[in-house]
Design goal:
The protein is mainly alpha-helical. Helix content is 49%, strand content 7%. The protein has nine helices and five strands, in the order E-E-H-H-H-E-E-E-H-H-H-H-H-H.
Length: 217
């Protein structure tokens, strides 16, 4: 789904996926027989497409950032850090992923990486941002959602667009995505307004009632 951003040049679009499309992306990963890869990739989609995390925030995430008892995640964000309260489904996918991880994981400095690489060169080291992009792009290609300009950042846009559609609460969207400038968040309200109010329907060519009656006679 593509819609223009207000006050933007014509080629600036918000690309996003509907909840049904996000389900298809997760279903693609669900076909993987490797439980570690399956659970890792689905957890990443939930963090980006449901909770609205950026690529870099997923990359920086550590096991120590997860409070499984309270159900919170400390997000090391872009410019500022914040604490989020993921939904139960996201937490469940994180638990399922951690259950498939190796018993011992090498620390990265003072922390233990949350998302691990499966590459031969960096086996079970911190998953790189390029690795995250590769994982998401693979699913977009296989599901037919990949097209020019669509990247893994569309998952974050999906979280903002779908959350506003469900709640009509811009403040909630702003807090969830960690936006400092409310104008950035307002784009998602504009998307919904354009989708729900297709004003050009008022000017669709229609026959004049009198002329229509004449043709019927």
């Amino acid at each position: 789904q593509d819609l223009y951003v207000p006050n933007a040049t014509p080629d600036e679009l918000i690309h996003f996926f509907t909840p049904d499309q996000l389900y298809e992306i997760c279903a693609f990963y669900g076909e993987n027989d490797d439980a570690f890869l399956r659970e890792r990739n689905i957890a990443i989609v939930y963090l980006m497409g449901v909770e609205g995390l950026r690529n870099v925030e997923v990359h920086r995430m550590n096991r120590e950032d997860l409070d499984a008892e309270v159900g919170t995640i400390f997000v090391r964000g872009k410019g500022h850090d914040r604490r989020i309260f993921p939904c139960a489904e996201t937490m469940e996918h994180l638990r399922a992923y951690l259950a498939e991880c190796p018993a011992k994981v090498a620390r990265d400095g003072a922390f233990t990486p949350m998302f691990l690489s499966d590459s031969n060169r960096h086996k079970f080291g911190r998953l790189a941002r390029t690795g995250i992009r590769y994982i998401i792009n693979q699913s977009l290609v296989e599901t037919g959602f990949k097209k020019p300009g669509v990247s893994c950042h569309a998952l974050r846009h999906s979280a903002g667009t779908n959350l506003y559609a469900a709640t009509k609460d811009l403040r909630l969207v702003q807090e969830t995505l960690g936006h400092r400038d409310p104008k950035t968040t307002a784009r998602y309200a504009h998307v919904q307004e354009r989708m729900n109010n297709r004003r050009t329907a008022a000017i669709v060519p229609r026959p004049h009632p009198a002329k229509e009656k004449k043709w019927e006679d």
